[in-house]
Every structure is written in structure tokens, then in C-alpha cells.
Specification:
RIFMO-like; 12-stranded mixed beta sheet; FAD/NAD-bd_sf; FAD; Glutaredoxin; 20 helices; 3 domains; FAD-bd; oxidoreductase activity, acting on paired donors, with incorporation or reduction of molecular oxygen, NAD(P)H as one donor, and incorporation of one atom of oxygen
Length: 711
């Protein structure tokens, strides 16, 4: 069992779940924060490669992070313990906010839209006892882009292509060699490299990366300024840092069966197109995810109950038999590709940042959700989007190290809320089988009784027979004999089922209010004097109201979307207000209306931002139909600065203007962060001293010298 040694106090801690081939350890040395992101090794070995950032984990979150950091000019490398990328589909639902982020990753969102299955083949999810299904809303009113259905392994493939376009390479251990002298690791994804040790030195984090070369385990040393743990639900980085998870564990154990069947795909495309199929019959129970009906690619999720049922019991043959039972007929071409066990948790890390702000958790390493609602990968991508620009400002010397704490204060409450929402949605999904007489809580209770009363008395095989016999009796509740309108009990259950579906109380896949309407209360923003809400209050509102998204321009909110048209240019195309914020550099955007006081505040913003070397662009929103002569006024009002853009509203009924949609007046000025969240809002005629107010905004909560920006 590996240990974590504390150098200062001599304390020794044990760590559970270590890797089998290497002793992992984290040596925590109490050292001052070093001034350079890529300083000396601190170990006397000048051959140790230096990098500002090392990312552990080459899943979607780690790859998005590496793309953003590289675009922002931060050198980084990625360590991935596997020697090849998995073909198991895993996550597949990409929500609005994540697709908005993907729009700015060199057109990734467009690639997904062109590559995903046709919408009509997946816009429903179905319960086998009913032909009704919830229809997803794809109207592009609240966002410039729709949700998507695209398997994780395919997303990883697209991300790798995008990274290749900006100079990234994927390397195996034998393509790198064991020597570290003159080794250049930046812009590389090191496959087959597992983070096995972490040491905090005078000059950063010294990583031990274990790899297999020619059958021998070796360790490569890498020094970095920041170590970002994006290595998934069973995070090694989290374990080494001694960070614990809080929440509900072991909600359900499942077997995930990845298989292909073009026969089944053709049948469902013709008869019952959909994304999710909840199947309950007297022979078996499972959830079928149709990743691609056209190509017949599926994943079947089957609950199992150890120790009576073990993962080893689910051979390829057994899984094929279960597939046939759930389908109801035997497709001729079922090909089982992969079988994996997994455990459903609902947990959030007790903290996201450790070791003098040097170790940061991102994605599933920081939170583990039930899959109901598809929050896992989406929350992780949004973590990466929140963190990347802050690291960039820190490296560029315009932010203090304490800016990294705002990553935790902003993203951890979102993860806690999404955890609760995922559990709530999981329970809603389980209300359907419960209405049919297949209450999952009863199954769990039966399992617990068998474990507590028979576990030490009778052999496992006999326990298995008892458990499966009881489950067989339970599944009989959905037999045609019981579940029909002529049977009084069946009729009652079907009526209950219709009520749940009609009232929208079953599983939901779109959460516009939470997806686009979440708001940071504390962090890299200037809280409004009139703010009356807390995060707890927001949660209470969300739990009591519909899932409707209401645009908000409050500090901490995502910038509301409306179509705009650039003025004084030959380009007649329209774009989103979200496109006023650059995707290629960490630039702030100040949104104003063409008013004298607002222009004055904009000039102060440009002047002071120039002093601080902080990129800022002014965006002047004009009413629809503004004439060119008036628009030219921005040039004289903002001279000598040229980093501004004039745009014209393209409103859509029932609102008449962007300001009206945001429920504010055109006297408002709004500072938007590089991640498209609002950092500050005020009304220009309330500002008496523009220079002082701008300096206050830029230095708010910096916790260091006034000239450092904590935003």
C-alpha cells in the first residue's frame, strides 16, 4: 500500500486503490510559491523537462483543456495511462452550453453537427411499455446552437484532429525513448504514461510518469508549474493529492455492453427511432443507448448485484442472450465489442485545488454524477473553459495566484447542484418501473436482506439462485397477463404510467434553466450591490419552477444570446452576442449602448486595460435600423483606440431589443469575461469617476497589489 509522506511534520498517511505496478507517493514540502511557471527543476537535474502545465488524462476534458491552453499561448503536455484510446462510446449527450464552447474550438461544433446521427433518429427516448416519448426542443432562440448526440470516442477523435491542426502529436513510449536529455514534451500527448508520483519542489511540481518500454517499467521525471488532474472518476491525481469525495456512493452497479447490430439499427430506425430505450420485460431489464442507429452501434446498461451476481458472470454469450431477451427477437448480426463494469456515484471532491494552488482537479476527477441528464462530461468541459483563461492571465502576469481559487468557488457549487439534479433525474427515470411494479428500491432492499441474512450462511451460488428467483417474480409484474387494461392491477399501473408521462415527471434530457442559466455567486466577478440571491436561493428557485431559461445580465451569468449584425462592414451575415467574445485569446468584452456616459466609461476601460496589458474590446450595440452616419460616431468617441466593434440588433419577437430581453436599460454597461460569463454590470450614469470605478473593478478581490487583476 503506497503512502503519502508529509515532510514537515513527519505524518504518514495510507492511500487506498493504488496502481498495481508502481508505488505512488506524494511528498508535500512546505515551500514558497515559485515565481516562474517553468523554473528550474529544484532537483539539480537540468535535463528534467520543464513545462508550465501538465494535464493528466486524455479524455474529452483533458483534450479540451490542452486545446484552450495552447490557443492561449500556454505550453503544455498530456499524460494518458492507456496506450490507445477506448472505442467504448461512454458519454453521448452534449448540451447547449458545451456546444457553445465547441463553436469556438476551430469549428468543432459544426463538425459534430455534420457527423452526428440525423436528429429524427434520436430526438426521443422511449419506454418499452409505451410508444410515447419526450421530444427535445431544438429551436435556436436561447442559444446559437442545438444540443447534440455524439459518442465520446468519436468526440475524442475530432478533438485529436483539432489538436493536430495546432501542432499536437500523439506519442507512444517507444517513440519518445527513456532519455530525458533534450526531450521536448510540449504539444505532445504521451500515451502509456501514468502519473505515479508527485513532489512539490521549490520550482513547481515534479511528476514521476511511469511507462513500459520493451517490457520494462521505467519512470520519466517531468517538472511543471501546474498539474491538472483530468483523469476521470478514479483519478490518480486526486488520490495522490489526498483529496476525498463527498456524497452518495454505490447508487447502482452496472454492466455496460458495447455491441453492434445493423439488423437492430434498421428495425429501430423504421419502427421506433430514439436515443434511449428503457426495457422492462419478464425475462430481463436494461437501458439501451442507441449511439448510432444507421450503423447499428449500441450500449446496453444492465444492473447487477454482487456478490450474488459478479461481473465475471457476464460473458459474451450471456450478454448476447440478454440482448435477445430485451429486443424480443433475435437479430442475426449481434457482435459484442466490449463489456465493462461501472458503479454509479453522486459525489463532489471536497476541494478542487491543492498543494499551494499547484494541483487542480477538472472534470470527473472533481465530480461523479449519475448519467441521468448527461451532466458529467458537459460539466467537465465547462470546468476546463472556466480554468483555461485564468491560468493564461496568471502566466501573463496580469492576475494574482489567488485567481485559481475562484475556479473552485465558481465551479464546485455548480457541480454540487448538478449532482443533486442528476440524482433527482435518476429517481424520476426510476419512477416508470416503480409505477409498473418494478420499484428499484425494493430490489435494493431485497439484495441488502440477502446480504445481511444469508451472506454468511449459504454458498454464493445458492444466494444467487434465491436473488434471481425473487427478481424473476418481480419482473413478472410487467408480463402481459398483469400489464393490460383488463387486469384491474395492470389498468391501475398503466394509468399511473400515463400520468407520469403526461405530467413530464419522467426522465428529462434538457435542462435549459440549469444548462444556460446557472450563475456564479462568488469568484472572479464584482458582486452587484442589489444582489438579493445566494446560490442556495437560486437552487430553491430552480427546484420549484419549470426548466425554462430566463436570460439574465446579472454578474456571474452567461451572456444572453441574441443575433447581431456587424455595422460598417461589407459582411451581411449574422452572429451571436456570444461571438462578441474572442475564442482565440483571453479577451474581455465591454458591452455598451451608444450613449455619452457609456462611451466615457469605455474610454476609461481601454486606457486602464492598456496600462495593465489586459486585452479588452468594446462592443457597441445599436438598435435595429441604425444609419451609418450615426454609427461612425463610435470612431470619434473612442479615439485613439480601435479595438471596438459596432453591431446592430437582430431581435426576434416577442422582444424588441437585447437590453429588453436582459431586463435592463440601455444605460447599462456589461463587462464579459473570456468564458462568456458576466464579470461586472452597472449603469453608466451612476458612475461619478470612471477611472476609479474601472480600477476598482480590475482590482476587486485581488488579495494582492492593486495592479494585479483578480477576475
Amino acid at each position: 500500500m503506497p503512502s503519502i509522506a508529509g515532510a514537515g511534520g513527519g505524518r504518514l498517511f495510507s492511500v487506498n486503490g493504488a496502481a498495481s505496478y508502481c508505488r505512488r507517493r506524494l511528498i508535500l514540502l512546505q515551500r514558497p510559491l515559485f515565481s516562474s511557471l517553468a523554473g528550474g527543476s529544484g532537483s539539480g537535474d537540468d535535463a528534467t523537462p520543464h513545462l508550465p502545465v501538465v494535464i493528466v488524462g486524455a479524455g474529452p476534458v483533458g483534450l479540451v483543456l490542452s486545446f484552450l491552453l495552447t490557443k492561449f499561448g500556454i505550453k503544455c503536455a498530456v499524460l494518458e495511462k492507456n496506450v490507445e484510446f477506448t472505442r467504448h462510446p461512454r458519454a453521448h449527450f452534449i448540451n447547449n452550453r458545451t456546444m457553445e464552447i465547441f463553436r469556438k474550438l476551430d469549428g468543432l461544433a459544426g463538425d459534430i453537427e455534420r457527423s452526428q446521427p440525423p436528429v429524427d433518429l434520436w430526438r426521443k427516448f422511449l419506454y418499452c411499455t409505451s410508444l410515447s416519448g419526450s421530444i427535445l426542443d431544438f429551436d435556436k432562440v436561447i442559444s446559437p446552437i442545438s444540443v447534440a448526440h455524439f459518442s465520446q470516442h468519436k468526440l475524442v477523435g475530432l478533438l485529436l484532429k483539432k489538436l493536430g491542426g495546432i501542432g499536437f502529436q500523439t506519442c507512444l513510449p517507444d517513440e519518445i525513448g527513456s532519455s530525458t536529455r533534450d526531450l521536448v514534451l510540449e504539444n505532445k500527448i504521451l500515451m502509456g504514461h501514468e502519473c505515479s508520483s508527485i513532489q512539490l519542489t521549490d520550482n513547481g511540481i515534479l511528476i514521476g510518469a511511469s511507462f513500459n518500454e520493451a517490457g520494462r517499467m521505467q519512470e520519466r521525471k517531468i517538472l511543471c508549474g501546474f498539474l491538472l488532474g483530468a483523469d476521470g472518476a478514479r483519478s490518480t491525481v486526486r488520490e495522490l493529492a489526498g483529496i476525498h469525495m463527498k456524497g452518495q456512493r454505490d447508487l447502482q452497479k452496472l454492466v455496460s455492453v458495447h455491441f453492434r447490430s445493423k439488423d437492430l439499427g434498421k428495425y429501430l430506425s423504421r419502427e421506433r427511432p430514439g436515443m434511449l430505450f428503457f426495457i422492462f420485460n419478464p425475462d430481463a431489464i436494461g437501458v439501451l443507448v442507441a449511439h448510432d442507429l444507421e450503423h447499428g452501434e449500441f450500449v446496453l446498461q444492465i444492473p447487477f448485484y454482487p456478490p450474488q451476481q459478479m461481473f465475471e458472470d457476464f460473458s459474451t454469450k450471456v450478454c448476447e442472450e440478454i440482448i435477445v431477451k430485451l429486443v424480443g427477437w433475435e437479430p442475426s448480426d449481434v457482435q459484442v465489442l466490449d463489456i465493462k463494469p461501472w458503479v454509479m456515484h453522486a459525489e463532489v471532491a471536497e476541494k478542487y485545488i491543492s498543494c499551494d494552488n499547484r494541483i487542480i482537479l477538472v472534470g470527473d476527477a472533481a465530480h461523479r454524477f449519475p448519467p441521468a441528464g448527461g451532466f458529467g462530461m458537459n460539466t467537465g468541459v465547462q470546468d476546463a473553459h472556466n480554468l483555461a483563461w485564468k491560468l493564461c492571465l496568471l502566466q501573463n502576469g496580469v492576475a494574482s495566484p489567488s485567481i485559481l481559487q475562484t475556479y473552485e468557488s465558481e465551479r464546485r457549487p455548480v457541480a454540487i447542484f448538478n449532482t443533486e439534479l442528476s440524482v433527482e433525474n435518476f429517481k424520476a427515470a426510476m419512477s416508470i418501473p416503480a409505477a409498473l411494479g418494478l420499484d428499484p428500491t425494493v430490489a435494493n432492499s431485497v439484495h441488502q436482506v440477502i446480504n445481511s441474512s444469508l451472506g454468511s450462511v449459504i454458498p454464493r451460488n445458492m444466494q444467487k439462485s434465491v436473488l434471481e428467483g425473487l427478481f424473476s417474480i418481480g419482473r413478472a409484474q410487467v408480463s402481459e397477463y398483469i400489464l393490460n387494461e383488463k387486469n384491474p392491477l395492470g389498468s391501475l399501473r398503466l394509468a399511473r404510467l400515463r400520468s407520469i408521462l403526461d405530467e413530464g415527471k419522467s426522465l428529462q434530457l434538457q435542462f435549459p434553466a440549469e444548462d444556460l442559466g446557472f450563475r456564479y455567486e462568488l469568484g472572479a466577478l464584482v458582486a452587484e450591490d442589489c444582489a438579493e440571491t445566494t446560490y442556495e436561493a437560486e437552487k430553491q428557485k430552480h427546484s420549484k419552477r419549470s426548466r425554462e431559461y430566463i436570460p439574465s445580465a446579472k454578474a456571474g451569468s452567461r451572456l444572453p444570446h441574441m443575433l447581431m449584425r456587424a455595422l460598417s462592414t461589407s459582411n451581411e451575415g449574422v452572429f451571436s452576442t456570444l461571438d462578441l467574445v474572442s475564442g482565440d485569446k483571453p479577451e474581455f468584452a465591454l458591452i455598451i449602448a451608444p450613449l455619452k456616459e457609456s462611451y466615457e466609461l469605455a474610454r476609461a476601460m481601454l486606457k486602464i486595460a492598456d496600462e495593465l496589458k489586459l486585452p479588452v474590446k468594446i462592443c457597441v450595440i445599436w438598435p435595429q435600423g441604425s444609419v451609418d452616419a450615426k454609427v461612425k460616431g463610435s470612431r470619434s468617441e473612442l479615439a485613439p483606440w480601435t479595438n471596438y466593434v459596432d453591431v446592430e440588433e437582430v431581435p426576434r419577437a416577442p422582444v424588441n431589443s437585447w437590453w429588453e430581453m436582459c431586463q435592463i436599460t440601455s444605460k447599462s454597461v456589461i463587462l464579459v469575461r473570456p468564458d462568456e460569463h458576466i464579470a461586472w454590470r452597472t449603469e453608466s450614469d451612476r458612475v461619478r469617476d470612471a477611472d476609479s470605478e474601472v480600477r476598482r473593478v480590475f482590482s476587486k478581490n485581488s488579495r494582492t497589489e492593486e495592479h494585479l487583476v483578480h477576475m
